[in-house]
Amino acid sequence: MLEVEGLQVYYGDAPALRGVSLGIDDGEFVAVAGSNGAGKTTLLRTIVGLNRPRSGTIRLQGKRIDGQPPFKVAEAGITYVPQDRGLFPWMTTSENLDMGSYLKHAREKREETLREVYEIFPVLKERENQMAGTLSGGEQQMLAIGRALMCRPKVLMLDEPSVGLAPFLVQKIFKNIKEIHMRGTTVLLVEQNVRAAFSFSNESYVLENGQIVLEGKGKDLLENELVRKSYLAL
């Protein structure tokens, strides 16, 4: 479904990604974990066209999308939920969700998709007339994910959805993401919470200093000595 090969990204003269390669099969749940500054957000931003790679390729279903503007990447089928959620605070929950269905194929199935979003996040139905800026942190994260789903993506990319949330909400959000995956959406998750991310994912990667240093099945990596010492404090 999505293939990243030899990706090199720089901020000025400083390398942010150094030859990153990874692949995601159709219907897979892939997690990328790493510490702050490892390059996780840069990876997602580059895939969606917000950063331009110096070299390397990005393919969606075999077609190159590297170097394309973000709206073209969205049209191709990738949606991105940024760490800051990117909501419109002075618009209602319903209006924010509506903004997610601006693509032609998404508009045609807006009502069907909206029902699915409300099934996954019933609280959004309860808050549909409430201003997004007045929602709790957990509700705002649900709204950001729900709006991305309104695009009917082939690949849903999430950047640190657990940031700033209480532990019980983190588990709830991850269960929601797993449900989205079980309904057929391919998921690429970037996350510092290694235990949660790897427990839910199929394939997983560890990114350090802009390079992939480990890859494998999520639950297998939780037993890896480097992961246990560096990320799980065991």
Key features?
234 residues; alpha/beta; Rossmann fold; six-stranded mixed sheet; four-stranded antiparallel sheet; 11 helices; 26% strand; globular
Report on the structure:
- This protein is an alpha/beta fold and 234 residues long.
- It has a domain at 1-74 and 191-234: Rossmann fold, CATH 3.40.50.300.
- The chain is 38% helix and 26% strand.
- It is built from 11 helices and 10 strands.
- The strands form 2 sheets. The protein has a 6-stranded mixed beta sheet, sandwiched between helices. The chain has a 4-stranded antiparallel beta sheet with strand order 2-1-4-5, covered by helices on one side.
- Helix 3 packs parallel to helix 7 (137-149).
- The radius of gyration is 17 Å and the shape is globular.
Task: Write the SSE topology.
Layout: E1 2-11, E2 14-24, E3 29-33, H1 40-47, E4 55-60, E5 63-64, H2 70-76, E6 78-81, H3 93-99, H4 104-108, H5 110-120, H6 122-126, H7 137-149, E7 155-159, H8 167-182, E8 186-191, H9 194-200, E9 203-208, E10 211-217, H10 218-221, H11 225-230
Parallel strand pairs: 3-8, 3-9, 6-7, 7-8
Antiparallel strand pairs: 1-2, 1-4, 4-5, 9-10
Helix pairs in contact: 3-7
